[in-house]
Design brief:
By secondary structure, the protein is an alpha+beta fold. Helices cover about 65% and strands about 5% of the residues. The chain has 8 helices and 6 strands; from the N terminus they run ααααααααββββββ. A 6-stranded antiparallel β-sheet has the order 1-6-2-3-4-5. Helix 2 packs antiparallel against helix 4, helix 2 crosses helix 5 and helix 6 packs across helix 7. The longest helix has about 70 residues.
Length: about 400
Amino acid sequence: MPALASHRKERSRTTTSPAVGLTTAAIAGVTLLSTQSAGAAPTEPKPSIEEVQKKVDDLYRQAGTATEKYNKAKESTDAKRAEVDELLDDAATRTEKLNESRRVLGNYAATQYRTGAVTPTAALLFADSPQAYFDQTQLMDRMTDRQRTVIDDYETQRAADAKQRAAATEKLESLTLSQKALRTSKQEVQAKLAEARALLSKLTAEEKARLAALERQKQEEARLKAEAQAKAEAEARAKEEAAAEAARQQQEAAQSQDTSTGTGTDTGTSTGTGTADSTYAAKADKVLAFARAQIGKPYVWGASGPSSYDCSGLTQAAWKAAGVDLPRTTWDQVNVGTRVATKDLLPGDLVFFYDDISHVGIYIGDGMMIHAPKPGTNVREESIYYMPIYGSVRPA
């Protein structure tokens, strides 16, 4: 019997499904990535060199402000530490005196204990003689008077010691707050400088060269302004000299006329201004001599010499060389002496910069100054127009 044909249809094997699935997954993945890319925040554009320069300059200025905060906190901390040390030394001396008074009182207490149990009658009976008894009684009476004096002294010393210790405790608490402010100011300076260094470290060699070119351009513009100031000062000096010469000739003519007529009138009109100016000039010469000797030494924030300086540390040290004690910070130095206009500046005057008075330099004439500029630089001569001027003072 012939074999029957099978009615089962052979199932065809599909080989394209995996490919279709893969393609679908790939498309989905691309779509997802596209969606994610579209939703992602765009990368911030790299700042321009001009923006970097402005940012770095601003950070250095902020660091300068924080440095003055540090200087003020350090000045306060040093003063309070000295007060605390003095109070503690005094307290130690008072404690020693108090302990001595305690020892004396202890001796009196022991004497009373030894004699207190014996009645006057018994003491008389046991005495070698009535006279010896009366002598001893008078001695004890005198010791009692001395004891009262010692007790009074002891109470006075104890009260003074308690008051002194309370004052020392208060000063210690104030010192602790000053030290905390000092640490905060130090951290603020370091943070600003670190941020500036981080910005500069990201620049390429070409960008650093462009930044240096911008700095030179800024210095050149300041130099031209200084030259204009120097010209104005020269013209002012010439006018003053011409006026002085005219006054001298007029005085000589008047004296000659008085001599010929026999009147002998004294036409001198000196007010002593010349003497005051010469005194200030003599001090200024010492200031400038000191400042020039520091040129080339590094700027270090919080430093006041002799190997490094910050801006107010340099001005303080320079004027100290002329016998004038200035406060430590720019904020205090600006209030010393007499305010002067920029057009009236004399060598030795202090010029302050920025609205927050965070920088200062020593005027040397012709629109130039000596100053300790900023981290990474040395003490140098520079135009006073390199930074926005706040104001100027004549310290003495």
